[in-house]
Amino acid sequence: MRLLRLELERFGPFTGRTLHFREDASLHVVYGPNEAGKSSALAAIKDLLFGFERQTDFDFLHEGKDLRIGAEIADRQGRRMAFRRRKGNKNTLIDAADASIGDDALSPFLGSLTRPVFCRAFGLNAEDLRAGAEEMLKSEGDVGASLFAAASGLRGLTDVRQSLEAEATGIFAPRAAKDRRFYQAYERFDTAHKTIRALELKASDWKALNARIEALAGELDKIRAERAAKAAERARLSRLKSIAPLLGRIDAHLGDLEDFGDLPEVENGFAARLRRALAAAEVAQDRLEHADIARTRATRDLDAVAVDGGLLAHAAELGELVEKFGTYTDAARDLPRIRAEAEQYDRSLRALAVRLGLPSDAPVEARIPSDAALALVRSLLEEGGDVARDLARQGEALGSEESTLEDLQRERRQRGALVDPAPLKVRFAAFAPLLKGLERRVALKTAIQAEERDLLAAGQRLKPGIVDLGCLDPAALPDAGSIEGAREALANIGEAIRREQAGLEELASGLARSEARILALAEAGPVPSAEAIAAARIARDALWAELRTSLFEAEGRLQGAARFEALRAFERAVEDADRLADAQARDAKRVADHGAEVQAAARNRAALAQTEARLAGLRGQEKTERSAWAGLWSGCGVVPLTPAEMLVWRSAVDHLLERLARLREQRSDLAAIDEQFAGIEPSLRNLAAETGLSDMGGLDLGLLVARLEGRLGEIGESWDRARDLETRIRSTEARVARTAALRDVAVGRQAEWRGRWEKAVAAIGLEPDAALEQAAAALAAWDKVPDTRDERDNRLRRVRGMERNIEAFELKARDLAASLAPDLKDLSADSAVKAMLSRLEVAQKEAVRREEGTSRLAQARVDFEEAEQSLAEGKQEVGRLCRELPSGADVARVLDGLERRERLREALGDLRAQLVDVSGGRAEEDLRAELAGFDPDATEAALAVLSDEEAILERRGNETYAEHDREIRRRTALEAGVGAEVALQQKRSAEAELADAAREWLVLKLGAQLIGKAIEQHRAGQQDPMMKRAAALFSELTGGDYEGLNQEYDDNDLPRLVGRRLSGSPVPIAGMSEGTRDQLYLALRLAYLEDFAGRSEPAPFIGDDLFATFDDRRTAHGLKALADIGGRVQPILFTHHQHVVELARETLGSKVDALTLA
C-alpha cells in the first residue's frame, strides 16, 4: 500500500495542508523545521489508518468533533481509494461529502495489520533504532532473537525469558532447597502428617490426667485460704505500726500546749494581724526617712542648674544654618572639580571639530547636521554593506556552480558507453518461476544441517544418552504402559517400605523410651514388683523346707554352726520378702509404673520383630521388581534410570524419532529439487558470462544466482547513475544561468545605491567618493557632539549655583555670630557655626536638666506627705490591737507565744486528720485501746515472717495454677481433638500450596519455553531469505566496510550473528561500534519489511529522524538503503534537518521526493 496524498484538513496545528507523494519516487523525505508540526503529521498517519484514539492531544486548535484527515492510497494491484477520517466512535471513515463508507473499507489495504503492530514494525525513530541495537548486544547476537526483535519491534524478550526461568527455579528445581516454595510447602505437609499420627488418646493417660487436675484444684483452694489469712494479719499489724507514731506525736503536741496556759485567748488570726500592723508601721517610718532625704537632694540639684536664654531664643535660626551646613561644605568641596569638568568638555568639543575637519576654535555645535541627514546616511551605510555582500555572494555562487558543472561534464566524458540492463533482466526473469524453488532449496539444506546437529546434540543430552538416533530400534523400546506399570509397582513397594520403616523407627523409639523409664524407676532402689516378691517368697519357702527338715526329721539334721547359718539365712529370706511386700505397699505407684513399662517394652519387642520380618519381605519384592525393570530394556541396549525418569526419556525419544522422520522427508525433497535445477544451470552460466562474470564454472548454483543478481543490479545501478548524471548536469546548467542573472541584478543595485550615497554624504560634510568606513567614522563623531555640548552646559550651570549658595551661607553665619557670640566673628563661617552649635547644645541640655529637677522636687514633696500619712495610720492600728492584750504586757513576747500556740494547734489538727485516714475512720479511743501492749520490734519480726510465708504461698500458687491450667488445656484439646484437626488443616493447606506452586511453576516454564520456541521458529523459518537480504543491506549501509553477515555457533550450538569484513574476518556484535550496530539493526528491519511485502500488502514505512545520530556518510548510505526497498515498500522519512534533504537530493537525484511542512 502506498500513500499518494495526505490531507491535513483540521488536525493539530494544520488547517487545509496537503502533502502529495510522487508515485515514481523510491524515497519520500518530509522536511519540517522545529515547531512546524512534524510530530503532528506523524500522528496523523496513524490516526488516518487506524482511527482517532479516545483521548487525543491534537485538538488544541480545532475541536475534537471537527478534526478531519484525508488521503488517497493505492495497492500494488493498482486499486486506488480516496477517503477521509473523522473523530468518533463509529462510521469514522467518510468520503468527500462526509458520507460514511464503512469502517472496514480499509481492510483490503491493511489486512490484519493493527495499530500497535504498525507502530512497532512499520515505524522507527533514532531512539528505537539504538534500543534495538542494544537488545542485539544483550542477546549476544542470537540469530533468532535478533530476527524476531527486528521483525516485531518487540524488545527485551531474552530478559523476559531469563526472568521467567529464574522465577520458576525459585519455586521448584530437581535439587531440593529450603528457599524454594515447593519444598517449603512439602516440609509443612510432612510435619503435619507426622503430627496427626502422634496425637493419639489412651485410657490410662486420660484417667491419670483427670486425677491430676482434681488434685491441683484442691491444692489451689488450700493456697487461696492460707493467703487470705496471711493478708488479714498483715493488714492488722501494718495498721498498728502506722498509727503508733501518730498517737505519740499527738500526745507530745498536747503536752506542749499546756506550756502556753498563761496567754490570753484571742480570736484566730489575731497574732498575724498584729504582726502585719507592726511591720507596716516600721515600713512607713522607713519611707518617711527616705522621702525627706530625696526632697533635700532635689532642692539642691535644682539650685545648681544655670541656663543661657539668649542662645535658646535664636535656636531656630541656628538650626536653619545647620540644615544648610552640609550643602555648603559639599559645594565648597565640589566646586573646583565641576569647574574642571566644564573645561574638559569644552576641550572635547574642540577636538571633535578637528576630527570633523573644522577649525578648533569654530563653534562645532552650531554646525550639527539634521537628524534626517544623519538617518539617511546610516540607512545607506547599512544598505551599501548588504549590496556589496550580496554581489560577492552571487559571484562566489556562480563560480561554485560553474565548477560543479565542469566536474559533472568531465565525469560524463569519462563514463563512456553503457549497457542497457533491460534485455538481460528480461532473460533472467524468465527463470524466476523455477528460481523461487532455489530459496526453498537453500532453506531446506540449512534446515537439514541444523536439524542434524540439533538431533545429535539432543540425543547426547538425554540421560541415558543416545549416540546415534538412527541406530535405535523403536520396536525394542518398552511402551509407556509398561513403564507406567513398573513405576506404579516400584512406587507402591517403596511406599510400603517407607511405611514399615517409619513404623520400625517408631517402635524402636518406644522401646528405647520404655527401657529408659524402667532404668529411671530403678534408680531409687530395686523395684518391689510382684515378680520380685514372688521370687523372694520362693527363696524363703525353700530355706524353710530345708530348715524344717533339719529341725523335725532325723535324717538330714544339721548340727552346730551349720544349723545356726541355716537359721540366719531363713531369717534374712523372711526379712527380704517382708521388706519387698512392705515396700510394694508404700511405693505402689512406682511399682505400677514399673510393671506398665515392662509390659510396654515386651509388646514393642514383639511388634518390632514382626515389622522387621515384613520389611525383609518387601525388600525382596523390590529387588525382584527392579530386576524385571532392567529386563524390559535389555533388548535396546539402554541402561535404565528410575521409571519416572525413563517415562520422560521415552517421551523425549518419541519426539526425537518424529523429528528424524521429518528430517528424512526433507532430505528426499532436497534431492528432488537438485534434480530439477540440473536442467537450467547451463543457461544461467551462459547468461552470467554475458554480464561479464567469469570463472563461474565450479560455483554452486545458489551462489551463481546470487552473483548474477548482484551483477544485474550493478549494471542497473550504473545505468541509473548515468541517467541521474544527465539530470544533475541539466539541473546545474539551469542553476548557473539563474546565478548569473542574480549577479547582474546585484550589479545594478550597487550602481543605483552609489547615486543616492554621493548626495547624502555631502550633507554631513564629506566628499562624494567617501568610503563606507569614512562615513561611519563621521557619524560616530557627530553622534558625540550633542551629548558633549549638553554636559558642558550642565557643568557651567552647576558652578554658578554653587557660588550663589556659598555666598548666602557665609553672610548669614557672620550676622548671627555678631549678635550671639561676638568672640567668634574672626573665625571662618563653618567654624563659627560649629562653635555656636556646640554652645546651643550645652544650653539645651541645661534647660532639660532644669525641667527634670523641678519635676523631681515636686514628686519628692508628694512622697514625703504620703509617708507621714501612712506612719500615722500604722501607729493607730498597732494601738488598737494592743488594747486586746493585758495591760503592761511585753508585746513582742506575747506575740511570739500566740504564734507558737497557733502553730501547735494547726499541727495537732493535721495529725488527727492523718490518724483518721490511716485507721480507716476508727475512734481515737479504740485505737489507743488496741495499741495496749504494742511491741514495735515484735511487729517488725512478725511482718517479716508473714512476707516470707506469703512469697512462698504466691510461688506455690503460681506454679500450681500454671500446672492446673496446662493440664486443663491439655484435657480440652484431647476432648475436642483440636490438635489433630489443626494438623489436618495444616496438611490440607500445605497440599493446596503444593498444587499452587506446581501450577505457577508450570505456567512460568511454559511461558519461557513458548518465548524460546517462538524465537527458534523465527530463526528456522526466516533465517535464510532474510539473512541474505539483510547481509546485502548491511553491506550497503556500511558503505562496503562490511561484505555481509555470517552465522557462527557458540558452545551451546546456538547460531550467533557476526559481521563479515571485506577480508573475510568475522566481527561479533559486541565488537561493533554503536553506529555499526544501529546499521545492522536497520538492515534486519528493512529486510523483514521486504520479506513481509513478498507475502502481504505492506503499509508505508515511517522513519522519524532516523539518522539523527548518523554522520553525513552514514546518512547517505542509509538514504540509499531506504530507496532500495522503495520498489516493494513505500519509505517516508520525516526530518527537521535541512542537510538531510540536501544529502538525499545529492545522493538519490530524481529518486527522492522532497516535501516541506510549513
From TrEMBL:
Residue span, YhaN AAA domain: 1-206
Source organism superkingdom: Bacteria
A Pfam entry, by short name: AAA_27
Coiled coil: 206-233, 857-884
UniProt KW keywords: Coiled coil
Protein biosynthesis found in the keyword field: no
The protein, known as: Uncharacterized protein YhaN
Organism phylogeny: Bacteria, Pseudomonadati, Pseudomonadota, Alphaproteobacteria, Hyphomicrobiales
